[in-house]
Amino acid sequence: MKLSLVDLSTVIPGQTRHQTLMNSIEVAQYIEKLGFNRIWLAEHHGSASIAGRAPEILIAAIAANTSTIRVGSGSVLLNHYSPFKVVETFCTLNELYPKRIDLGIGRATTGPVTDFALQQDRSKQFKSDSNQQILELTSWLDNSFPEDHPFAATRIHTIDSLPKLYLLGSSPWSASAASHLGLRYVFAGFINQKGTRDIINSYRSEFKPSNTPSGVKHPQASLSVHVVCADTEEEARKQVAPIRVMYRNLAKGIIDIPLPAPDDAVKELGGLPTTGEYVSGSGTPPRFIVGNPEQVYLQLTQLGKDLSVDEIIVQDMMTDHAARLRSYELLSSAFELK
């Protein structure tokens, strides 16, 4: 089993956003030594609790401060941007750090205000055409526009290798698009638990091999889930408490407030949060996989076996930096990554 990380650059209580971004660089350096496969940086806008809003910039900073780990986006919200600009940006990153850059793309909305703010043409309501966007992006990467296409005369001049392209999502659309274009696929199980097995299976069953530089000949599916590991189950439950507070606030319509420290979150919840466990054979991950190394290892390995995935991409949003590093250390040891 390969382990990777998607980092949201969660703002820790008492720290500045500058320190938050320095934490992301430190985390990348740390998990590189631990044997993690890749680190991806997320794109979230207008958030008091998350500093990761420009993955392209953080990718450059992290790749410059590491040497072997793959670095990429998890994800660039393609529906808001020009595919041409995205391809040029990531090809440039790949030219700077050859064979280490991943281009993970998605299509999430960011909220009515930021969706509009990201939009160049303000004369009409925001509306994306995700099928057209992804097709155009792959055509730029592959230099494969039909001869009669207006873009055919313009090429992406770059080195022989390309950034590895991944389509990320939590819906049947993302699986369908990835399968029909022959792309690598990452399912966001931390968003949609119930659909995990069916959507990943549909990606595989509908997969059409691709001979293009951006595609793959065989289906490649990975799973991203929320994971917190600690020396004891009680400590792990404490470390997941801030995100439980966030979800409770969201259910009440309370948004865009900083995440609390773990002890404060436990007080706000009235005690340690309860967490479910993965039911073997179900293919449906719990919202949080939380526990000591043995508990987390057993759940992740069984989940990977049931879904036939050989890479788990961890998300956590922990607000205790030392505990976060410890979580990765314990995961590396449990999975013998070194």
Summarize the biggest pleated sheet: 8 strands, parallel, barrel
- The helix count comes to 11
Q: How much of the residues is beta strand, in percent?
A: 15-25%
Helix content: 40-55%
Helical/strand content category: alpha/beta
Shape: globular
Question: Roughly what is the average pLDDT, rounded to an integer?
Answer: 96
Order of helices and strands: EHEHEEHEHHEHEHEHHEHEH
The counted number of beta strands is 10
Tell me the distance between the termini. 12 Å
Output the radius of gyration: 20 Å
Widest sheet: strand ordering:
1-2-3-5-6-7-8-10
> Low-confidence parts, pLDDT < 50 over ≥5 residues?
none
Itemize the secondary structure elements and their pairings.
Blueprint: E1 2-7, H1 17-34, E2 38-41, H2 55-64, E3 70-73, E4 76-77, H3 83-96, E5 101-106, H4 112-118, H5 130-142, E6 164-169, H6 172-181, E7 184-188, H7 196-205, E8 221-229, H8 233-251, H9 262-269, E9 288-291, H10 293-307, E10 311-315, H11 321-334
Parallel strand pairs: 1-2, 1-10, 2-3, 3-5, 4-5, 5-6, 6-7, 7-8, 8-9, 8-10
Helix pairs in contact: 1-11, 3-5, 6-7, 8-9, 10-11
